[in-house]
Structures are given as structure tokens and as C-alpha cells.
Amino acid sequence: MIRNIILATLITALWSCAESNDSEAAFSDSNTGTGGSLARFTIVGDYLYTVDQTTLHTFDISKAQEIKPLESTLVGEGVETIFPLNGFLFLGTRSGMLIYRISQGGAPQFVSNYQHVVSCDPVVANSQYAYVTLRVSNCRQAGPGAANQLEIIDIRNLNNPQVVAMYEMESPFGLGLDGQTLFLCEGSGGLKVYDVANPQNIQLLHHLTSFNAIDVIPLGGLLLVIGPDRIVQLDYSDINNIKVVSEIAIGV
Amino acid sequence: MKRTTASLIPGFILTLLLSGCIEPKTDIPEQVSGLAPIYYDGDWRNIGAEPPQPIRELFKIYYKDSIIFAGESLQGIHVIDNTDPFYPETIKFIRIPGNSDIAIKGSTLYANNLSDLVAIDISDLDDIRVLSRVQNAFPGQGAPLPGDYFGFFECPDPNMGAIIGWAEKILERPECWR
């Protein structure tokens, strides 16, 4: 995760070296923030990518005062999430995971897809594996035979993604990855923390059930967890001893 | 959508064309779960910074430069100063009607304002400014009905304002369906 952030920052820095960085604003000038795995907007360099239902949209945002819509790529039914990594975009759709390469000029080019049974599913990835959750519970469109599960997909060859393992879950929503640690939201079933060093045999380290978890952002030791009714922050700098740092609850 | 005579005819013909038979839906249930519109009363293009608001229903999260941006379902963004994660402080609410997603570059927040894409300068949270707007960038947002939905729904009432979304609801004798 940290490596990815550094990489993303480097890429951003390279791509926007013409921008000055002398602002005294609260926000650093050229870099982008971090979204959760349920995000449908993502910024890579000077381009904003968004997904809505059937379409991957590309916008040139090199000038904020003048957003330029570039392309709308029809990618299929039920596109739900978008995750950027090393110049690629991973789309979580109801029928599978789609991989696009960001070409020069920002246009996304289809690379490959990995099909699964119709369900609701976000995706996160590192350079070796993509982690996809499939959810049937409260997923209106789930198809027959669909199950609540985590799938780990080998993406070392991006042209030919291969599933390596599947694990039963309760009702998986968003997920987050930091090194070998995978955080997986189970909705009202709480938050699970896995050691995924061995994708064939992932280890459940913790299952925190005192809050409802929908999505997470790992920030190198600090985990932001969002539920419909609260934001919980966890200190996971010692993975064996995860502590609640603070909580903002509904109505506050 | 509402089965008035005018809307019935094309649907009738379509049904004939597609299936060659007619299946009239005569059984309107007393109670059934379906979708109901969420309305926005007022000008949904009106974006602004407001004092902090209580959390009602969150579903999205974004983080940048020690600030947490938490998406309040279809209403806007809670801005939370997280310089000290032990004492996060809600400092603003950015009202963006119909919003479901954001991303930030520098001090520009990109968000959907219902079906439009907007770029908002948030360098001064007391004085946020819409820098540009792409109209109808996301035609699916605020649609008359989610494109993939088939079932009963509460008939939209144009007097209630713009539809910014749909929510599951127990409907009583619904008069609209697809």
C-alpha cells in the first residue's frame, strides 16, 4: 500500500512537474487522495476515471476550470467500483473483474477480464494478486448460484487472470490491502483482518464485530473504517494488537 | 411508468413484439417491498459549504492530507480534520445534492452533483467555489428509475422536487411497476 502510494505520488509528480508547489493551502497541490474500495471515481495523473453502471468515463482534468470529457467506454452491465494500480484500472462489475491499461493520452484500453457468477463486488490489488469480494446478501442483482465469498486472483499475467483461491464469507463489502494484510468488511458482521501471505491458505487474525463495516482505507498503521452509522479508526501498527483509536457515531 | 392509457399503449405493443403474449399485472399487492424516490427540494445545482452536520447515513470515504471526507448518502460530504486521529473534528459539511462519489487532486474536489460532474475549489473551506461543470456527464444518476430495476415502485410526484435517488421501501398498493 505504502509502496503504491509512493509510486502514485512519484508518477503524479513526474506527470505534473510543471505545476508549482508553493501554495500555503491546507491541501498539497499536485497529489491525489486515497479512496475506499467502493470508489467509483479515481484520478491518475491528469485524468479522472469514473464508472457508472455500464460505462467507464475518462475526463481530462489538467485544468480544473475546464474539465474535458474525453471518452465514454461501454464496458458491460453493473460496473460498481474502480481501483487504479501502476497504470492499470481494475473494474469491479457484477459479472467479474475487468482490467484496462491507461494508454498515452489517458484513454483506457481493454486488457482482460475475469468472469464470475453475478453478484456485488469491489476489488483491490497489488502487483501479484487481485482480491475480489462477491456479495449476494442485499445484492438485488445476484444471480443463481452466487455465493458470499472472497476470491484471490493471480494477475502476474494481466492478460490472463487466474483464480487461485476462494473463501466463504458472510456478507462481504469493501476491502483494503496493506502489504500482506487484508482488511475485509462484512457489513453488520463487522471487520475481518487476514494475513494473506499465502493466498492458498489465508489466516484470519482478527474478527471485530462491535461495529458495522462497509469500506476501509489502510493508511500504513491507521485504518479508517466506515459503516453506515459511524467512522471508526483503528491502530494496526501492531497487527497482533489492533486498538480502536476513535469513533464518530451517528448523530454526531 | 404509471399505467395511464398513454403510457400503456407503447408498453402493450412492446410486450406483444417481445413475447407475443400479454401478461397483464392485475394483482397489486396490499404491501410489497419496492423502491421509492428520494427527492431534493430546491435547486440541486446549488453547492455550498455549511457548518458541520450530524452523520445520518454514510457510504463512501476518501482521505487526503489528514482530512477525512465522508460521503453522506446523496446529500454531500462531511469534512473531518484528522490531524489527531484520537480527536477527529468535523469541521464542515459540503452540500452536493445527489452526490455519490468524489476524488481530489491538489485542492480541487471532483464530485458528481446528481448527473453533472463538478470541479470544486476547496482550498478555502469557508469559501468553496465551483470551478467548472460538465452537464449530464452521468445520465444514469437521478434517472427516473434505476436501469436494472424491475418491480414495484412508488410513482414519482413531480411536485416533490428532483429525484436524486431511490431507496428500498415497503409500499402499500403501489400503482407503478416495471
Mean pLDDT metric of chain B: 84
Please tell me the CATH architecture of the largest domain in chain B by its name. Answer: Beta Barrel
Mean pLDDT reading of chain A: 86
Number of helices of chain A: 1
Shape of chain B: elongated
List strands and helices in order, with pairings.
The complex is a heterodimer of chains A (252) and B (178).
Chain A: H1 2-15, E1 34-35, E2 41-44, E3 47-60, E4 68-85, E5 88-93, E6 96-102, E7 108-115, E8 123-125, E9 129-134, E10 149-154, E11 162-168, E12 175-178, E13 181-185, E14 191-195, E15 203-208, E16 215-218, E17 222-227, E18 230-235, E19 243-249
Antiparallel strand pairs in A: 2-3, 3-4, 4-5, 5-6, 6-7, 8-9, 9-10, 10-11, 12-13, 13-14, 14-15, 16-17, 17-18, 18-19
Chain B: H1 5-19, E1 31-40, E2 48-50, E3 58-64, E4 67-72, E5 76-81, E6 89-95, E7 102-105, E8 108-113, E9 116-121, E10 129-134, E11 152-153, E12 162-172, E13 176-177
Antiparallel strand pairs in B: 1-12, 2-6, 3-4, 4-5, 5-6, 7-8, 8-9, 9-10, 11-13
Produce a short descriptive summary.
The complex is a heterodimer of chains A (252) and B (178). Chain A has 252 residues and is mainly beta. Helix content of chain A is 6%, strand content 49%.
Protein described:
The complex is a heterodimer of chains A (252) and B (178). Chain A is mostly beta strands and 252 residues long. Chain A has a domain at 2-17 and 32-61 and 69-189: YVTN repeat-like/Quinoprotein amine dehydrogenase (Methylamine Dehydrogenase, Chain H), CATH 2.130.10. Chain A is built from 1 helix and 19 strands. A 6-stranded antiparallel sheet of chain A has the order 2-3-4-5-6-7. Chain A has a 4-stranded antiparallel sheet with strand order 8-9-10-11, with no helix packed on it. Chain A has a 4-stranded antiparallel sheet with strand order 12-13-14-15, with no helix packed on it. Chain B is mainly beta and 178 residues long. Chain B has 2 domains: 19-40 and 140-177, no CATH class; 48-134, Beta Barrel (Thrombin, subunit H), CATH 2.40.10. Chain B is built from 1 helix and 13 strands; from the N terminus they run H-E-E-E-E-E-E-E-E-E-E-E-E-E. A 5-stranded antiparallel sheet of chain B has the order 2-6-5-4-3, with no helix packed on it. A 4-stranded antiparallel sheet of chain B has the order 7-8-9-10, with no helix packed on it. In chain B, a hairpin with a 7-residue loop joins strand 9 (116-121) and strand 10. The longest helix of chain B is centred in the first third of the chain and has 15 residues, at 5-19. The model of chain B is unreliable at 1-9 and 11-23 (pLDDT under 50). The chains are: A mainly beta (252), B mainly beta (178).
